[in-house]
Each structure stands twice: as C-alpha cells, then as structure tokens.
Design brief:
The complex is a heterodimer of chains A (509) and B (230). Chain A has 509 residues and is of the alpha+beta class. In chain A, helix 14 packs parallel to helix 17 and helix 15 runs antiparallel to helix 17. In chain A, the strands form two sheets. In chain A, strands 1, 3, 4, 5, 6, 7, 8, 9, 10, 12 and 13 form an eleven-stranded mixed β-sheet that branches. Chain A is built from 18 helices and 13 strands. The two termini of chain A are 26 Å apart. In chain B, strand 7, helix 6 and strand 8 form a beta-alpha-beta unit. Chain B has one domain: P-loop containing nucleotide triphosphate hydrolases (Rossmann fold). In chain B, the strands form two sheets. A five-stranded parallel β-sheet of chain B has the order 6-7-8-3-9, sandwiched between helices. A four-stranded antiparallel β-sheet of chain B has the order 2-1-4-5. Chain B is an alpha/beta fold and 230 residues long. In chain B, 35% of the residues lie in helices and 25% in strands. The chains are: A alpha+beta (509), B alpha/beta (230). Chains A and B meet through helix 1, helix 14 and helix 18 of A and helix 1, helix 2 and helix 3 of B.
C-alpha cells in the first residue's frame, strides 16, 4: 500500500473536516484564478486595442495619453482640433489638389506635396472628427478609408467584417453624406438595426441633439477593439451638422485677429520646414494615394443652408444640393497614420513633435504605459489580496491537520510499531496536505472557469475577448506550485508533531 | 534448539519527573527458541509491555544485549530498528489498534507496507480468510465485532512473515468465549507459519497451555519494592 493511498484514506476518514478545508482552499484558489483570468482578459483586450492597425496618432499638442484615449479608445475629451490643412500635410500633391478643387480653399495648397507625405507613402492617413455622441457612445466622423485600410486582430491582419450591411461610402444616392456604421456593442446596447436613423447629440451624451440624422448602413462584427463602442459617420456628413464648421472670417475682419496672425506665423514656419524636410525625405510616389483624384464629381454649393434646409435636403437624397465645407472651415480631431515604411515613423514623429501645433504619439507605447501605470498596479494589488486569501486557506490546512493530530497519535504509533519510520509518517502528513492542496486547486480552478464561462458572453461583449472553459492565462500555471508550496509550509508543523510522536506512550494509551 | 531471541544483562529504567531514575527491568538472561511459544505472566505495571517494546526495538535498553535471529538490535540505528521490526517482528496489541480509516484488508496490508515489500498483496486476503474473515475484507473496524477486530489484528501482525510474534494480552478485551478461539488462532497460525511467539498475559489458565511459561518476577531482578525505592 503506497503512502499516498494511506494519506488518501486519512483524508477520506475525516471527510467533513477535509471537505471544509479543501473547499475553503478551493474558494481562495478560485479567487486567484479568477483574478488571473480577468488579468489575462484585460491584457488581451489591451493587446487587441494595441493592435490598432496604425502606428501613429497625430493630434494637437497636449497630453499624449489624452490623445490616445480619445482617438484610440474613444474615451475622455478631445484636446482640441487641428486645421484640415494639418491632415492634408500627410497627403500627396494630387490628392491635395483634388481636395482644393472639391472643397475650395487656398490654391497654393494644391501645388505641393504635404510635408509628411513622403513619410506616409505606401501607408495611409485617416482623419477622425470627434465631439458628438450616440447615447453614451462616441460618434466618429471619418472617411471610408477607415474600413478599407485599417486591420485588427492579434496579427493586425483582419479586415472589418459586417454582421449586416456595408461600410460607409463617400457618397451614396440613398443617404447622401449621412451614412453611419455602428460597432457591435453600440448596435446591441442601442438596439438599432440597418436602415434606422439616429441623431447625434453635441458635446456629451446629454447634449442637445443635432437636427441632421445618419442612416445606419452597416453593423460591424465584434472586433474586441474600441471600435465596437463607436458609431462611425461620414466625415462630410459630420461637417454638415450645425456647429461643426469652423467660423471663417473675411480678410477685413481678421486684420486685427491675433489668432490668425499666429496661424500665419505657424503656416510660414511650416512651409519653410516643409521645404527643408522635403530635401532629406524619401521620394513621394506619384501613383500612391491618388484614389481621391478619381472621386465623384460633387458640385459645391457655395450658399449657406440652414439645418432645416439640410434636413430636407437629406430626405431628398440629392447629392448636388449639399454645401460641403471649404478647407478653412474644416477641422479634424486627429489623424491615424500608418507609414508605408515603418522606418520613416521615428523621423516623422520627431518632425511633427518639433512643430508648434501638432504632436504625434505611438499608441502602443501609450497603451502600454496606461497598462503599466494604472491597470498593472491595480491588478497587482488584487493579486496580492488573493494570494493572501490563499495563504489564509493554507493556514486552514495547517489548523485542520494539526487539530487532527491529537486523534491520530495512536494511529501514528501503531504504524511506527508496524515498522514505519519517523520520516514515513512525516511524509504521510505532507501527502495529506498536498492532497488537500491538489484537490482544492483543481476544484478552485473549475469553479473559477465555470464562473468565467457563465459570463463569457458579457466578457466578449465588453472586451471582444472570447473566453472558454479551458482558456487559461499564462500565470495560472504558477498557481498549483504556489499552493503546493503553501501546503508544504502548512504541513511542516503537524508533520513535525507526527515525527516526534512517542510510540510507547501512545500505544499504551 | 536454535535460539531466536537472546536477552542478556538487560537493564531499563525511566527518568522520574522529580529527578533520578526508576529501574523497571533487570533481566540477566532470557531466551526463546525458534518456533517456541512462550507465555509471560506478571503483575500489572511490572514491566511486561516495556519488555515487549524493548524486544520490538521501540525502546532502547540502558545497557544489555537483545539479539534476534543473530542481529544485535541495540546496536542498530533507529531507522535500522524500524526496518528490522517491519521485517522480523509482528505485534498484536491488547486493544487491537486497527486503524479506523482503513478496511480490514487494508489494515492487514498495512502490516506488509513498511517492510521489504516482497510480499504479495494476495497474502492479506489469504490471511483474513485463514482467520475466518473472508467475507469481511472491506469492512471497517467499527463494523466488526471485538473478536473479529482481534482476528484482523492477528492477520496484520503475521502479514509481513515475522520470525517473532509479540502479543500483548491479546485476549484481555475479548469475551471469555472468544478468548480461547483467538488464542488458538494465534498459536495455530504461528505454528503453521513457523513463527516464535511471546505472549504476555495475566491469565494463568491461558498461560499454562503454552510450550513454556515464564513469570516476569522470576526473570526480572527488579522487584516492585526495589522499583519503588529507586
């Protein structure tokens, strides 16, 4: 008969006490595994969020973290806006010329490449405009390129797929510029379906509603990224909403405007910088990013329209009856950049950050900082608490086995009389402790994972991370050795008591 | 006849709580031959159980020699005595001392667990069948009668094929009707297995049926009067 079998018999003999001790340990282990799993889910969610498909976010000067929060996670408030011309600095001359032609603006803009265009060549620059809400979710004004160019997933190679509908179009005969695509969570929580129209609110979730509505033409599949929590609208439609046009003053009005003087100074500096930068920059490819030049021929209506008129126009669904904003009237909150050659990213980032108006941040770096600075310590604290819980459960093992020693001294003496060595009876006690630890750990693991499976639907909805019963985090493999080590420590005192048991006096008792 | 157990000039005393030592045993010579069955009688508190513990190697004498099968066990380390005990000595207790967590079969198997491990597990079932408990193999001690428990204890003591069986008042807790059968079982089994037997008892009728009857007062030079005075 093996010593493990003897230990198991002792475990079974004190069934209630063994069960309570084991269950207490199981709860402790379950808590640890649960925290580790949550940690794993959060880590994966962060990893997914870091797999954004672009390597830089460009926005106004300010907090890099805030820029990341509002442009990547659609959280917090935007810092400020950038002039549309900042976005145009990432575009080649042909595309800029198309914009000038289409929207109206300074003809000089059409004559040169954007100063950062050579850095971006082969990649993309996607503008974002934030500020409105659909319920509690951010409304993100962007271009169709968002769904065409951006990838997601662990390897950043997955295209956006649609549960139903399609991506935004630059302009559609059905909905004009007023199309929207909503993330999976938005669709579920706001209970919207294809063809429904929503009216964004301005500034915050309880702000006043715009009078122009957007028709939902697509509902995204869950991606496990913040995009699940956003409602994407056509950037042109976003600009057409009341209050979204930047006021443009006439020359006479702006003569004494100090802000315009600053803008002119910045523009002059940047134009100078652009010439210098272009000298040492990679050659731009004239064939790259010229898609916009083949854009639909939208006729610009120069006269202003009221929101009521715009709303009526929307219903009429006539493309040529909208007045698209001119370039000076346009602003973007940020620009998502993917460099065609990643080697150019640091140089471009430095060049942007040396400027007065913009900053470029690497979102992965900011996400990792956020993870390390805020989420990491929080989870570490949680983990510490749960490890203490485990230690308390280990003390429970100690108390349980030690209390049983008084009843078992005679059994130990009998085994010694049958030839068992002191080390043998000591080992039996340690095995008993290990059995409690092993069963408690397995039971705790099962309880924790059962709980996770019960909430897997909600976890996937909230984070996009799919979890199953056997989904484990890397840290979970450490739980069993840790608990066995605690069990060994807990067994030391009763094992020592067993070792010192006097045979003669206990046999006679 | 070859001697299995040879005790010479054995002295055992215990430390007193108030200081000094209390001499319990002083045995100049005591022997048991191979296959011999000896009954040892004596008064309660006279040192009978202490003598059994010394022979089993559970206690160490102050001075003197205990040789079993030619092995001087007083010179063995504690681990050596444990191993020697597991392979050479069987022990039947007055209170049976079956482990309550184990079945009858497991209790018997426990008797061969700590030895060399060369015995087949089937022997445990065979022994229980031999003592009349073939249909009680998986019963727990508390599910067995007192007599049945003592039979299990006998089977356990013989499981490791010992050369010497020590029985400490094996019939003291058994009703008179069962006592004779228990004793017959011990003696018969020892005879079949060629095991020497040293039985401690205070029942003169039982003791008189053995090959040899020894009185502790005769072999032990420590009298109760001496012990009290020490």
């Amino acid at each position: 008969m093996s010593l493990i079998h003897i230990a198991w018999r002792n475990f079974c003999h004190r069934a209630l006490s063994s069960f309570l001790t084991t269950f207490s340990l199981a709860l402790g282990v379950g808590l640890v595994v649960l925290v580790l799993s949550v940690y794993g889910v959060i880590s994966e969610a962060f990893t997914r969020n870091a797999s954004v498909g672009y390597n830089l976010v460009v926005g106004p000067k300010g907090s890099p973290l805030q820029l990341t929060l509002n442009s990547v996670f659609y959280l917090s408030q935007p810092i400020e806006n950038l002039p549309y011309t900042e976005y145009m600095e990432f575009l080649p001359q042909a595309e800029r010329a198309t914009m000038v032609s289409r929207f109206g603006g300074d003809p000089e803009l059409a004559k040169r490449d954007g100063r950062y265009a050579p850095f971006v060549a082969g990649g993309f620059a996607i503008p974002l405009a934030l500020g409105d809400y659909f319920g509690e979710f951010r409304v993100v004004g962007t271009t169709p390129a968002f769904f065409k160019e951006l990838k997601h997933g662990p390897n950043v190679d997955e295209d956006f797929t649609f549960r139903s509908g399609r991506a935004l179009q630059d302009f559609s005969t059905e909905n004009g510029y007023f199309e929207a695509v909503v993330g999976a969570r938005v669709a579920k929580q706001m209970n919207v379906t294809l063809g429904e129209k929503f009216y964004p609110t301005h500034g915050d979730p309880t702000g006043h509603g715009h009078e122009l509505g957007f028709t939902i033409v697509g509902i995204l599949d869950p991606t496990g990224t913040p995009n699940d929590r956003a409602a994407f609208v056509n950037l042109e439609g976003f600009y057409l909403m009341d209050g979204h046009a930047k006021p443009v003053e006439t020359d006479a009005e702006s003569d004494n405007d100090s802000e315009d003087v600053l803008d002119e100074a910045i523009d002059a500096e940047e134009a100078s910088d652009a010439e210098e930068a272009n000298e040492g920059q990679p050659e731009s490819d004239p064939n790259t990013n010229t898609e916009a030049s083949a854009n639909n021929g939208v006729r610009l209506i120069q006269s202003d329209i009221t929101p009521e008129q715009a709303n009526n126009l929307t219903d009429e669904k006539q493309s040529d009856e909208y007045r698209l904003l001119s370039i000076p009237e346009r602003e973007v909150t940020s620009v998502l950049i993917r460099n065609g050659n990643i080697m150019f990213a640091p140089g471009m980032q430095n060049a942007i950050n040396e400027g007065i108006r913009s900053q470029a941040v690497a979102p992965i770096g900011e996400i990792n900082k956020l993870m390390n600075l805020i989420v990491g310590p929080l989870l570490t604290a949680l983990l510490a608490i749960t490890v203490i819980t485990c230690a308390v459960a280990a003390v429970g093992i100690l108390v349980s086995i030690y209390n049983s020693m008084n009843d078992r001294r005679k059994d130990i003496a009998v085994m010694r009389a049958l030839g068992a060595r002191r080390t043998t009876v000591t080992a039996i006690i340690v095995f008993e402790s290990f059995q409690v630890a092993l069963i408690g750990t397995i039971l705790g693991w099962i309880l924790a994972h059962a709980a996770i499976v019960m909430y897997s639907g909600q976890i996937e909805d909230q984070t996009g991370v799919q979890v199953g019963f056997f989904t484990t985090s890397n840290y979970e493999i450490l739980v069993l050795p840790l608990v066995l080590a605690l069990a060994l420590i807990a067994a030391l005192l009763p094992a020592w008591s067993a070792y010192r048991t006097d045979v003669g006096s206990n046999l006679s008792a | 006849m070859t001697q299995l157990l040879e005790i010479k000039d054995l002295l055992k005393s215990f430390a007193q709580p108030g200081g000094g030592n209390l001499a319990v045993l002083d045995i100049p010579q005591f022997q048991i031959a191979e296959g011999e069955q000896v009954a040892l009688i004596g008064q309660s508190g006279g040192g009978k159980t202490t003598l059994l513990h010394l022979i089993a190697g559970l206690l160490v004498p102050d001075i003197g020699s205990i040789r079993i099968g030619g092995v001087e066990i007083t010179r063995l380390s504690e681990q050596g005595r444990d191993r020697f005990r597991a392979e050479t000595i069987g022990y039947v207790f007055q209170t049976f001392n079956l482990l309550p967590a184990f079945t009858a079969l497991e209790n018997v198997r426990l008797g061969m667990t700590f030895g060399s491990g060369k015995h087949k597990h089937e022997r445990a079932a065979d022994l229980l069948a031999h003592v009349g408990l073939k249909d009680r193999l998986n019963y727990r001690p508390k599910q067995l009668s007192v007599g049945q428990q003592q039979r299990v204890a006998i089977a356990r003591a013989l499981a490791g094929r010992p050369k010497l069986l020590l029985a400490d008042e094996p019939t003291a807790n058994v009703d008179p009707n069962s006592a004779e059968s228990v004793l017959d079982l011990i003696r018969g089994t020892c005879r079949e297995e060629k095991v020497s037997l040293l039985t401690v008892t205070h029942d003169m009728q039982i003791a008189s049926s053995f090959d040899r009857l020894e009185t502790l007062d005769e072999i032990n030079q420590v009298t109760h009067a001496n012990a009290s005075a020490s």
